[in-house]
Write a structure and sequence with these properties.
Blueprint: H1 4-18, H2 34-44, H3 53-60, H4 62-69, H5 78-85, H6 94-127, E1 134-135, E2 138-139, H7 140-158, H8 168-186, H9 190-202, H10 212-224, H11 232-240, H12 243-248, H13 262-275, H14 293-302, H15 312-321, E3 325-327, E4 334-336, E5 346-348, E6 351-353, H16 360-370, H17 373-387, H18 394-406, H19 411-419, H20 437-447, E7 451-452, H21 464-472, H22 477-480, H23 488-494, H24 518-532, E8 539-540, H25 555-566, H26 573-581, H27 597-605, H28 608-611
Antiparallel strand pairs: 1-2, 3-4, 5-6, 7-8
Helix pairs in contact: 1-24, 1-26, 2-3, 5-8, 6-7, 6-10, 8-10, 8-20, 8-21, 11-16, 14-15, 17-18, 18-19, 23-24, 24-27, 25-27
Amino acid sequence: MKSTPWTAILALIIGLTAGGGTAARAAEGAPLTEREKAAHALNRLGYGPRPGELNRVTALGVENWIRTQLEPAKIADPAAEAIVGKLTYIQKTAEELAEAYRAEVRARNLAQKARAAAAKAEEEMNMAPPDNATMGGATMGDEVTGAVKKKNAARLLANPGPTEEELVVAQALGELHHAKLARAVFSERQLEQVLVDFWFNHFNVDARKQQVRAMVVSYEQDVIRPNIWGSFRDLLGATAKSPAMLVYLDNWRSSVAYEPGPREIAMAKKAQVENLGIAPAVVQTSRRGLNENYGRELMELHTLGVDAGYTQKDVQEVARAFTGWSLARKSGSFQFITSWHDQGAKTILGKTFPAGGGQKDGEQVLDLLANHPATARHIAYKLCQRFVADAPPEDMVKRVAAAFTKSGGNLRATYSALFTDPKFFAPEFYSVKTKSPFEFVASSLRASGADFVEVTGLPPRIPLRALEAGALLGRGGDRLSRVNRKTVTMHMIEMGQNNYGWGPPTGFPEDSSTWVSSGALVSRLNYALALTGGQVADARVHPGVMLGDKDADMAEEAVDALSKNLFARPLSEATRRVVLGQSVGAVPAGATPVADLPRVLALILGAPEFQRR
């Protein structure tokens, strides 16, 4: 980022994205053209246009395209399914991944013991005298030799390198992210992929917490993905019983207050270490009791919203209703433990729940919250914020909330109301949201007609997907430093987004300003250069396909041809001037300047117009 052109591009991006896309509002007040509507829909309901797709959607009719996206089961999706179908670890069942995690924990505990043995052997070695004095027919030198052998053996046990069994969970997590990226880039069911991302973010879990890492594959594939087209109540109930959510927000160990005896403490400790993979240091060996984490986030984030007027007493009562919602010892699947449940009467938001309700207490709380007017508004606001603007218009939020309520929380009907609302194609909301890093990399791969390629030159013993999983979780920095070329996922993490490893239950912020900083944008520009220059390990672009039938040897022809395929509006004069000024490489004396096509594409991908959606 020392060169002047990239500095100029960076200044343009920061100025325009931080200003809410003011340049994109040049035509504010005038209705969007059909081509602009197509670009708007492709960037909001999907991850941006592929070469020629703006023309195809415009010809089909934007409203028709949206209707097809609302019925994804009717859309053939061979390209994405072919890529995902080759992934093997995400095909494992939740029980298989749970067992793999327990095996990994056992191996880690053994390695910890081996390291302790190595340290002890080192200490014994240092204490041995240096001379060969005879002692009972043997020499002290023999003892020294024995200590050395013991030390070396202990070191080998302490640092054996990961086994294939230990890498199962990491491979599965890495494959999950690769599947997410592949679907974003190649799937014809674009809206479905955006909605899976939206709802995972709404019901966020952090794979870095305990055994959630082994549960997150099933969480996305079996809990989120199958429920985004049905009722909100069904989706809410599925997340409430999900092992990933139960562990992430600690409800799996929430119970009526109880003081166990010594034998029960020992049994619980053994079960948690051996069956659930909990590290011994965090095993709960003291009295059980109420945990309010899930009850609080259920109301504040998942349903009502922070300003819905509920009280701390309501949070406590909701937490009481969900006591006993826990995990089966062996399988790690949902189990209601009757003896852990607080059977007393409860009052929540003015509604009384009689004593003795058992598991039904929690189910009735979910019914109450899913059908509450505050939930309708909260969900409508978040959908409008994701698909329309950081600060969506209040009248639009009210209309979408009304559709949610009228349909009984039917999500497909709610989406339809959002995308057919008069404000959805309002010119003031055109291209005003800044792409997240994931949206940026997915849209860049789509725009450039990229393909995934096989990766070579990796560090020994660690497969690619396991390596990426470590990066997503903030681990394996020493191994990553030995990778010659970063993958798309590694570049994305450098831009500031580590999918599945976001700590707060709020999920990634929807406010576009989150992604606007000089450091993050420098990483975007470096990625654009690496991608178009063939320096991204697992992707190759084809800028020529974006030129159509143009023979764009000259810089202006190349810039205009690429821009036309990517944008419904021309580049701003400021952006075009910077791109044109740097679109030609070194020219020998007397030669005709020829456009450097990869360089032109990199500059356009780095342009402010491409950073917005």
